[in-house]
Task: inverse folding
Protein backbone atom coordinates (compact mmCIF):
# COMPACT_ATOMS: atom_id res chain seq x y z
CA UNK A 1 0.00 0.00 0.00
CA UNK A 2 1.34 3.44 -0.92
CA UNK A 3 1.99 6.08 1.72
CA UNK A 4 -0.63 8.82 2.06
CA UNK A 5 0.80 12.31 2.37
CA UNK A 6 -0.67 14.89 4.75
CA UNK A 7 -0.20 18.62 5.31
CA UNK A 8 -1.15 20.04 8.71
CA UNK A 9 -2.30 23.68 8.67
CA UNK A 10 -3.34 25.27 11.95
CA UNK A 11 -2.73 28.64 13.57
CA UNK A 12 -1.72 26.96 16.84
CA UNK A 13 1.88 25.74 16.92
CA UNK A 14 1.08 23.33 19.76
CA UNK A 15 -1.88 21.83 17.89
CA UNK A 16 0.18 21.66 14.70
CA UNK A 17 2.94 19.66 16.35
CA UNK A 18 0.51 17.46 18.25
CA UNK A 19 -1.42 16.47 15.13
CA UNK A 20 1.75 15.97 13.10
CA UNK A 21 3.11 13.60 15.75
CA UNK A 22 -0.18 11.70 15.76
CA UNK A 23 -0.31 11.36 11.96
CA UNK A 24 3.35 10.36 11.65
CA UNK A 25 2.65 7.55 14.12
CA UNK A 26 0.03 6.02 11.83
CA UNK A 27 0.87 3.26 9.40
CA UNK A 28 0.81 4.40 5.74
CA UNK A 29 0.64 8.14 6.59
CA UNK A 30 3.34 10.80 6.67
CA UNK A 31 3.22 14.56 7.29
CA UNK A 32 5.09 16.35 4.50
CA UNK A 33 4.56 19.93 5.70
CA UNK A 34 3.29 21.97 8.65
CA UNK A 35 1.99 25.51 8.15
CA UNK A 36 0.37 28.26 10.19
CA UNK A 37 -1.23 30.39 7.46
CA UNK A 38 -3.04 30.01 4.15
CA UNK A 39 -0.36 31.45 1.88
CA UNK A 40 2.21 28.88 3.02
CA UNK A 41 -0.45 26.19 2.84
CA UNK A 42 -1.15 27.18 -0.76
CA UNK A 43 2.54 26.97 -1.64
CA UNK A 44 3.01 23.53 -0.08
CA UNK A 45 -0.17 22.09 -1.60
CA UNK A 46 0.86 23.37 -5.03
CA UNK A 47 4.36 21.92 -4.76
CA UNK A 48 3.61 18.61 -3.03
CA UNK A 49 -0.04 17.78 -3.89
CA UNK A 50 -0.91 15.90 -0.66
CA UNK A 51 -3.68 13.38 -0.29
CA UNK A 52 -5.17 15.23 2.68
CA UNK A 53 -4.83 18.65 4.27
CA UNK A 54 -5.77 18.81 7.95
CA UNK A 55 -6.76 22.45 8.42
CA UNK A 56 -8.06 24.36 11.43
CA UNK A 57 -11.44 26.07 11.32
CA UNK A 58 -10.04 29.63 11.64
CA UNK A 59 -8.01 29.13 8.45
CA UNK A 60 -10.84 27.34 6.63
CA UNK A 61 -13.19 30.21 7.51
CA UNK A 62 -11.09 32.81 5.68
CA UNK A 63 -12.44 33.91 2.27
CA UNK A 64 -9.14 32.94 0.62
CA UNK A 65 -9.76 29.29 1.49
CA UNK A 66 -12.67 29.06 -0.91
CA UNK A 67 -10.48 30.29 -3.75
CA UNK A 68 -7.75 27.85 -2.76
CA UNK A 69 -10.14 24.89 -2.78
CA UNK A 70 -11.43 25.83 -6.22
CA UNK A 71 -7.91 26.15 -7.61
CA UNK A 72 -6.92 22.69 -6.38
CA UNK A 73 -10.23 20.93 -7.11
CA UNK A 74 -8.88 19.04 -10.14
CA UNK A 75 -6.08 17.53 -8.04
CA UNK A 76 -8.52 15.67 -5.77
CA UNK A 77 -6.94 16.99 -2.57
CA UNK A 78 -9.13 16.21 0.46
CA UNK A 79 -9.62 18.88 3.12
CA UNK A 80 -10.35 17.80 6.68
CA UNK A 81 -11.41 20.77 8.81
CA UNK A 82 -10.74 20.63 12.54
CA UNK A 83 -13.73 22.51 13.90
CA UNK A 84 -14.24 24.21 17.22
CA UNK A 85 -17.72 22.71 17.50
CA UNK A 86 -18.61 19.90 19.83
CA UNK A 87 -19.77 17.65 17.04
CA UNK A 88 -18.76 17.01 13.46
CA UNK A 89 -20.56 18.99 10.80
CA UNK A 90 -20.32 19.31 7.05
CA UNK A 91 -20.64 22.23 4.72
CA UNK A 92 -23.26 22.13 1.97
CA UNK A 93 -20.67 21.20 -0.63
CA UNK A 94 -19.47 18.16 1.29
CA UNK A 95 -22.76 16.29 1.07
CA UNK A 96 -22.26 15.75 -2.66
CA UNK A 97 -20.63 12.50 -3.82
CA UNK A 98 -16.93 12.87 -4.47
CA UNK A 99 -16.71 16.04 -2.41
CA UNK A 100 -13.36 17.22 -1.08
CA UNK A 101 -14.39 18.90 2.20
CA UNK A 102 -15.10 17.15 5.50
CA UNK A 103 -14.85 18.06 9.16
CA UNK A 104 -14.36 16.65 12.63
CA UNK A 105 -14.16 18.32 16.05
CA UNK A 106 -10.72 19.75 16.73
CA UNK A 107 -10.53 17.88 20.04
CA UNK A 108 -11.19 14.49 18.43
CA UNK A 109 -9.33 11.47 19.75
CA UNK A 110 -6.46 9.90 17.85
CA UNK A 111 -8.74 7.02 16.88
CA UNK A 112 -11.33 9.37 15.35
CA UNK A 113 -8.70 11.29 13.36
CA UNK A 114 -7.15 8.05 12.12
CA UNK A 115 -10.55 6.69 11.12
CA UNK A 116 -11.41 9.82 9.15
CA UNK A 117 -8.03 9.90 7.40
CA UNK A 118 -8.35 6.26 6.37
CA UNK A 119 -11.89 6.85 5.15
CA UNK A 120 -10.80 9.79 3.00
CA UNK A 121 -7.88 7.93 1.45
CA UNK A 122 -9.38 4.45 1.15
CA UNK A 123 -9.94 4.67 -2.61
CA UNK A 124 -6.99 6.90 -3.47
CA UNK A 125 -7.30 9.78 -5.89
CA UNK A 126 -10.23 9.79 -8.28
CA UNK A 127 -8.84 8.87 -11.70
CA UNK A 128 -5.97 11.31 -11.49
CA UNK A 129 -3.07 10.09 -13.60
CA UNK A 130 0.40 11.64 -13.28
CA UNK A 131 -0.16 13.32 -16.65
CA UNK A 132 -3.51 14.75 -15.52
CA UNK A 133 -1.97 15.96 -12.29
CA UNK A 134 0.86 17.69 -14.15
CA UNK A 135 -1.62 19.28 -16.54
CA UNK A 136 -3.75 20.52 -13.65
CA UNK A 137 -0.73 22.06 -11.94
CA UNK A 138 0.42 23.69 -15.15
CA UNK A 139 -3.02 25.10 -15.91
CA UNK A 140 -3.17 26.88 -12.55
CA UNK A 141 -0.09 28.92 -13.44
CA UNK A 142 -0.43 32.36 -15.02
CA UNK A 143 -0.39 32.04 -18.80
CA UNK A 144 3.06 32.73 -20.20
CA UNK A 145 3.60 35.54 -22.70
CA UNK A 146 3.75 33.78 -26.10
CA UNK A 147 6.39 36.25 -27.26
CA UNK A 148 8.79 35.17 -24.52
CA UNK A 149 7.99 31.48 -24.18
CA UNK A 150 8.50 28.59 -26.57
CA UNK A 151 5.90 26.49 -24.77
CA UNK A 152 2.58 25.91 -26.54
CA UNK A 153 0.13 28.65 -25.62
CA UNK A 154 -3.41 28.17 -24.35
CA UNK A 155 -6.37 28.06 -26.65
CA UNK A 156 -7.27 31.66 -27.44
CA UNK A 157 -10.70 32.92 -26.44
CA UNK A 158 -13.03 33.68 -29.30
CA UNK A 159 -13.11 37.33 -30.29
CA UNK A 160 -16.39 39.20 -29.85
CA UNK A 161 -18.77 39.10 -32.80
CA UNK A 162 -18.18 41.78 -35.43
CA UNK A 163 -21.90 42.50 -35.25
CA UNK A 164 -21.33 43.89 -31.76
CA UNK A 165 -18.73 46.60 -31.12
CA UNK A 166 -15.83 45.67 -28.85
CA UNK A 167 -15.94 48.97 -27.02
CA UNK A 168 -19.07 50.67 -25.85
CA UNK A 169 -19.54 53.54 -28.24
CA UNK A 170 -23.32 53.76 -27.87
CA UNK A 171 -25.24 54.86 -24.81
CA UNK A 172 -27.68 51.95 -24.70
CA UNK A 173 -25.36 48.96 -24.28
CA UNK A 174 -26.40 46.92 -21.21
CA UNK A 175 -24.08 46.55 -18.23
CA UNK A 176 -24.04 43.73 -15.67
CA UNK A 177 -22.98 44.15 -12.02
CA UNK A 178 -22.51 41.25 -9.58
CA UNK A 179 -21.57 41.03 -5.90
CA UNK A 180 -20.63 37.90 -3.95
CA UNK A 181 -18.87 36.74 -0.80
CA UNK A 182 -18.77 33.36 0.99
CA UNK A 183 -19.62 30.63 -1.52
CA UNK A 184 -19.13 33.07 -4.36
CA UNK A 185 -16.48 31.17 -6.29
CA UNK A 186 -18.77 28.27 -7.18
CA UNK A 187 -21.68 30.68 -7.64
CA UNK A 188 -19.68 32.81 -10.08
CA UNK A 189 -18.55 29.74 -12.01
CA UNK A 190 -22.22 28.82 -12.44
CA UNK A 191 -23.39 32.31 -13.40
CA UNK A 192 -20.50 33.15 -15.73
CA UNK A 193 -20.60 29.66 -17.20
CA UNK A 194 -23.79 30.70 -18.99
CA UNK A 195 -22.24 33.88 -20.44
CA UNK A 196 -21.28 33.87 -24.15
CA UNK A 197 -17.90 35.13 -25.35
CA UNK A 198 -19.48 38.47 -26.35
CA UNK A 199 -21.47 39.04 -23.17
CA UNK A 200 -22.30 42.58 -22.00
CA UNK A 201 -19.48 44.26 -20.06
CA UNK A 202 -19.60 42.91 -16.52
CA UNK A 203 -18.14 44.16 -13.24
CA UNK A 204 -17.89 41.88 -10.19
CA UNK A 205 -16.87 42.36 -6.57
CA UNK A 206 -15.99 39.13 -4.76
CA UNK A 207 -14.85 39.26 -1.14
CA UNK A 208 -11.56 37.43 -0.70
CA UNK A 209 -8.24 37.92 1.02
CA UNK A 210 -5.26 39.88 -0.24
CA UNK A 211 -3.09 37.97 -2.68
CA UNK A 212 -5.81 35.68 -4.04
CA UNK A 213 -7.45 38.04 -6.52
CA UNK A 214 -5.16 37.15 -9.42
CA UNK A 215 -5.66 33.43 -8.79
CA UNK A 216 -9.43 33.85 -8.72
CA UNK A 217 -9.47 35.90 -11.92
CA UNK A 218 -7.26 33.31 -13.59
CA UNK A 219 -9.52 30.46 -12.47
CA UNK A 220 -12.65 32.16 -13.80
CA UNK A 221 -10.91 33.15 -17.04
CA UNK A 222 -9.89 29.55 -17.73
CA UNK A 223 -13.35 28.17 -17.02
CA UNK A 224 -15.53 30.75 -18.79
CA UNK A 225 -15.89 32.00 -22.37
CA UNK A 226 -15.51 35.78 -21.84
CA UNK A 227 -12.19 37.43 -21.00
CA UNK A 228 -11.89 37.86 -17.23
CA UNK A 229 -9.27 40.00 -15.52
CA UNK A 230 -8.57 41.59 -12.15
CA UNK A 231 -9.41 45.29 -11.95
CA UNK A 232 -6.41 47.55 -12.36
CA UNK A 233 -6.76 51.27 -12.95
CA UNK A 234 -9.20 52.66 -15.50
CA UNK A 235 -10.68 50.84 -18.49
CA UNK A 236 -13.32 51.44 -21.14
CA UNK A 237 -16.09 48.87 -20.91
CA UNK A 238 -16.02 46.25 -23.66
CA UNK A 239 -18.27 43.42 -24.73
CA UNK A 240 -16.85 40.05 -23.80
CA UNK A 241 -14.83 41.59 -20.95
CA UNK A 242 -15.48 40.81 -17.28
CA UNK A 243 -13.61 42.81 -14.65
CA UNK A 244 -13.39 41.54 -11.09
CA UNK A 245 -12.47 43.39 -7.92
CA UNK A 246 -11.14 40.85 -5.43
CA UNK A 247 -8.25 40.79 -3.00
CA UNK A 248 -6.99 44.22 -4.03
CA UNK A 249 -7.15 47.27 -1.78
CA UNK A 250 -9.29 49.37 -4.09
CA UNK A 251 -12.99 49.74 -4.84
CA UNK A 252 -14.17 48.70 -8.30
CA UNK A 253 -16.60 51.36 -9.54
CA UNK A 254 -18.25 52.76 -12.65
CA UNK A 255 -17.19 56.27 -13.63
CA UNK A 256 -20.01 58.81 -13.75
CA UNK A 257 -19.04 60.51 -16.99
CA UNK A 258 -19.74 59.16 -20.48
CA UNK A 259 -18.72 56.82 -21.94
CA UNK A 260 -19.09 54.40 -19.04
CA UNK A 261 -15.74 53.14 -17.74
CA UNK A 262 -14.55 51.02 -14.84
CA UNK A 263 -12.10 52.40 -12.32
CA UNK A 264 -10.13 51.11 -9.33
CA UNK A 265 -10.50 53.70 -6.58
CA UNK A 266 -8.33 53.77 -3.47
CA UNK A 267 -10.40 54.37 -0.35
CA UNK A 268 -11.56 53.15 3.03
CA UNK A 269 -13.71 50.04 3.54
CA UNK A 270 -17.43 50.53 2.88
CA UNK A 271 -19.99 48.27 4.55
CA UNK A 272 -16.98 46.62 6.16
CA UNK A 273 -15.28 45.66 2.90
CA UNK A 274 -12.63 46.83 0.44
CA UNK A 275 -13.56 46.38 -2.35
CA UNK A 276 -17.24 46.77 -1.49
CA UNK A 277 -20.29 45.54 -3.38
CA UNK A 278 -22.24 48.57 -2.14
CA UNK A 279 -19.65 50.88 -3.69
CA UNK A 280 -19.88 49.07 -7.03
CA UNK A 281 -23.67 49.11 -7.10
CA UNK A 282 -24.02 52.74 -6.00
CA UNK A 283 -21.47 53.85 -8.59
CA UNK A 284 -23.84 52.57 -11.27
CA UNK A 285 -26.79 54.80 -10.39
CA UNK A 286 -26.23 57.14 -13.35
CA UNK A 287 -26.42 54.13 -15.65
CA UNK A 288 -29.18 52.29 -13.77
CA UNK A 289 -31.55 51.96 -16.72
CA UNK A 290 -28.83 50.03 -18.56
CA UNK A 291 -27.92 47.81 -15.62
CA UNK A 292 -28.86 44.30 -14.53
CA UNK A 293 -27.41 43.47 -11.11
CA UNK A 294 -27.30 40.41 -8.86
CA UNK A 295 -26.35 39.85 -5.23
CA UNK A 296 -25.12 36.33 -4.62
CA UNK A 297 -24.31 34.14 -1.63
CA UNK A 298 -22.36 35.74 1.19
CA UNK A 299 -22.15 36.67 4.84
CA UNK A 300 -23.32 40.07 6.08
CA UNK A 301 -25.24 42.64 4.06
CA UNK A 302 -22.72 44.33 1.77
CA UNK A 303 -24.51 45.17 -1.47
CA UNK A 304 -28.08 45.11 -0.16
CA UNK A 305 -28.40 48.89 0.13
CA UNK A 306 -26.66 49.48 -3.19
CA UNK A 307 -28.94 46.98 -4.92
CA UNK A 308 -31.99 48.76 -3.48
CA UNK A 309 -30.78 52.11 -4.80
CA UNK A 310 -30.17 50.55 -8.22
CA UNK A 311 -33.69 49.14 -8.29
CA UNK A 312 -35.22 52.49 -7.35
CA UNK A 313 -33.17 54.12 -10.12
CA UNK A 314 -34.51 51.72 -12.76
CA UNK A 315 -32.13 48.75 -12.80
CA UNK A 316 -33.19 45.12 -13.02
CA UNK A 317 -32.09 43.41 -9.80
CA UNK A 318 -31.79 39.83 -8.56
CA UNK A 319 -30.93 38.01 -5.35
CA UNK A 320 -29.83 34.39 -5.03
CA UNK A 321 -32.33 32.15 -3.25
CA UNK A 322 -31.66 30.52 0.11
CA UNK A 323 -31.64 26.95 -1.17
CA UNK A 324 -28.69 27.51 -3.50
CA UNK A 325 -26.76 29.92 -1.24
CA UNK A 326 -23.86 28.70 0.89
CA UNK A 327 -24.47 31.61 3.29
CA UNK A 328 -27.84 33.34 2.97
CA UNK A 329 -26.75 36.67 4.44
CA UNK A 330 -26.28 39.23 1.68
CA UNK A 331 -29.16 37.91 -0.47
CA UNK A 332 -31.46 37.78 2.56
CA UNK A 333 -30.68 41.43 3.37
CA UNK A 334 -31.50 42.39 -0.23
CA UNK A 335 -34.77 40.49 -0.15
CA UNK A 336 -35.82 41.91 3.20
CA UNK A 337 -35.18 45.52 2.17
CA UNK A 338 -37.03 45.09 -1.13
CA UNK A 339 -33.94 45.44 -3.33
CA UNK A 340 -34.56 42.38 -5.51
CA UNK A 341 -37.04 42.40 -8.36
CA UNK A 342 -36.71 38.60 -8.42
CA UNK A 343 -35.24 35.86 -6.20
CA UNK A 344 -33.72 33.05 -8.25
CA UNK A 345 -31.68 29.85 -7.83
CA UNK A 346 -28.07 30.27 -8.88
CA UNK A 347 -28.47 28.44 -12.21
CA UNK A 348 -31.20 30.89 -13.30
CA UNK A 349 -29.35 34.11 -12.47
CA UNK A 350 -26.95 34.08 -15.42
CA UNK A 351 -29.68 33.78 -18.07
CA UNK A 352 -31.75 36.42 -16.24
CA UNK A 353 -28.85 38.89 -16.24
CA UNK A 354 -28.25 38.31 -19.95
CA UNK A 355 -31.83 39.31 -20.78
CA UNK A 356 -30.75 42.87 -20.08
CA UNK A 357 -32.24 45.76 -18.14
CA UNK A 358 -35.86 46.82 -18.21
CA UNK A 359 -35.08 49.71 -20.52
CA UNK A 360 -32.11 51.34 -22.23
CA UNK A 361 -31.59 55.01 -21.48
CA UNK A 362 -29.74 57.04 -24.09
CA UNK A 363 -28.13 59.30 -21.52
CA UNK A 364 -26.71 58.83 -18.02
CA UNK A 365 -29.37 59.17 -15.38
CA UNK A 366 -29.13 62.40 -13.38
CA UNK A 367 -28.49 61.57 -9.74
CA UNK A 368 -29.85 64.04 -7.23
CA UNK A 369 -27.62 64.72 -4.26
Result:
Amino acid sequence: MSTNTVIVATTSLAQRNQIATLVNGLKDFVVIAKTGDLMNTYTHVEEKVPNVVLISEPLASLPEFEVMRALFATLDVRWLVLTSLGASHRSKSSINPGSDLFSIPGNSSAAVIEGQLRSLTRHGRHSLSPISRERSLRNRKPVADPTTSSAPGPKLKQAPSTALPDRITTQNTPIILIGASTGGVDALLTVLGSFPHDCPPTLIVQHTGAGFGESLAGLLDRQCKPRIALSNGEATLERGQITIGAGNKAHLILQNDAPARSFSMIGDPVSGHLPSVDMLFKSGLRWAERISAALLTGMGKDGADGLLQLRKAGARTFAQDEASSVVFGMPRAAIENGAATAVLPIDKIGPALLKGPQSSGLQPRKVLS
Observations:
- The longest strand covers residues 29-35.
- The chain has a mean pLDDT of 82.
- Residues 39 and 145 are 25 Å apart (CA to CA).
- The longest helix spans residues 13-24.
